[in-house]
Design brief:
Helices cover 34% and strands 25% of the residues. It is an alpha+beta fold. The strands form five sheets. A six-stranded mixed beta sheet has the order 12-13-8-4-3-15.
Length: 377
């Protein structure tokens, strides 16, 4: 199978003689015809990088591609979203669930092995999200005729007119496009609910917000629906909708000989600069609750932060003078400016400040630092 894919997704040499990915020609694909690919990887970064590789290297004006894939638990945000506002970053770290920012727009989704992802690649001219969703709804009607499934104008798929089982996002380039969507078969809905909630209070931003919806799994309403049966039905319906006869071909995005450059693209998607640094400019205005561990006295402070490109542009900590000397609150504000809006970075610079202070102030100072760090998720 992989030798077939290598022949299909060919390479060409640049004038400098360096091997580079090329859009496939009709000669290299042996007469053309659409492809149905199923990723063997369950790594969210590899699969997102594979999507981008196909979009960049397959001649989608000559052929379409359907990619089927799923991931180990992960949270995926849209290109223009704010991760601090979309997901519970501390809970994700505790559970070992990675965060990924995809290159398409849309809202935040939770992936696990009970969620199927479908990516429909086509030319920009033939881009048709409702037709793609019809592949899914007709496949479900064929194997589960008792289910009431319908696509909406927002390009979601609802079960029984209420429960969301599929959400969509897309990306259009100059000549090509891809439309990807989720399909909840047997996802962990408790993890979804726990992880898809804000981790930073008081955010003010123009980033694209997610629209919460009640969700359900297909398996909750069709308990005998097997994963393999669902895949087969979707491939069958894709072929029927587009007049094709394509069999599903397994592919491994980790195979650099078949997909050169995917590893580097996946590494970029894993990086802080892409995941957090691409967040649209935002501000934080929030109240910090303070407690003196020695005296049990309580107080509060106001925090105002402006963040651009994931970096703190300005910071103001308004702490009552009776709680902490002005010079210290000003010093804490100053050490944050110019650094990443990141709890690890903030904790490191705060430790340098607290280390030099007297024991009398150290407890209150540490409490204030911990409150600021918690705001960063």
């Amino acid at each position: 199978m992989m030798s077939h894919i290598r022949r299909t997704l060919s390479l060409c040499r640049s004038r400098s003689g360096v091997l580079q990915p090329a859009r496939t020609s009709s000669a290299s694909i042996g007469g053309g015809g659409d492809l149905v690919l199923q990723s063997r990887s369950t790594d969210v970064f590899q699969n997102l990088a594979l999507e981008d590789w196909i979009d960049a290297n397959v001649d989608l004006e000559r052929r379409g591609v359907l990619l089927l894939w799923r991931n180990r638990p992960a949270v995926v945000i849209g290109r223009h979203q704010n991760p601090w506002n979309e997901c519970n970053l501390p809970a994700m770290r505790s559970a070992g669930v990675p965060l990924a920012r995809r290159r398409s727009g849309g809202g935040t989704v939770f992936h696990d092995l009970g969620n199927l992802n479908l990516t429909f690649f086509s030319s920009k001219k033939t881009y048709d999200r409702q037709r793609n969703l019809r592949v899914i709804t007709e496949a479900l009607r064929r194997i589960c005729p008792e289910l009431d499934v319908r696509a909406t104008e927002r390009f979601d798929i609802l079960l029984n007119g209420h429960f969301k089982i599929s959400g969509s996002a897309s990306r259009l380039s100059r000549k090509s496009s891809y439309h990807h969507c989720t399909l909840l078969h047997s996802a962990d809905r408790s993890a979804l609910a726990a992880l898809l909630r804000p981790s930073c209070p008081g955010i003010h931003s123009n980033a694209t917000p997610s629209v919460p919806s009640p969700v359900t799994n297909l398996l909750d309403h069709a308990p005998t629906l097997r994963w393999e049966e669902l895949l087969e039905a979707l491939v069958h319906q894709y072929n029927a909708e587009f007049g094709l006869g394509s069999a599903s071909t397994p592919v491994d995005p980790a195979d650099e000989s078949a997909f050169p450059g995917v590893a580097a693209a996946a590494a970029e998607l894993r990086g802080w600069d892409w995941t957090f640094g691409r967040t649209p400019k935002f501000g934080v205005r929030t109240l910090l609750e303070l407690t003196d561990e020695r005296s049990a006295a309580r107080g509060s402070a106001r925090l105002q932060v402006e963040v651009k490109g994931g970096v703190v542009q300005s910071c103001e900590l308004d702490v009552p003078a009776h709680w902490l000397p002005r010079r210290l609150s000003g010093e804490l504000s100053g050490v944050l400016v110019g650094g990443r809006f990141c709890p690890h970075r903030a904790a490191a610079v705060f430790s340098e400040v607290t280390r030099s202070e007297s024991c009398e102030l150290r407890g209150r100072l540490r409490n204030l630092c911990d409150a600021v760090v918690s705001v960063m998720g």
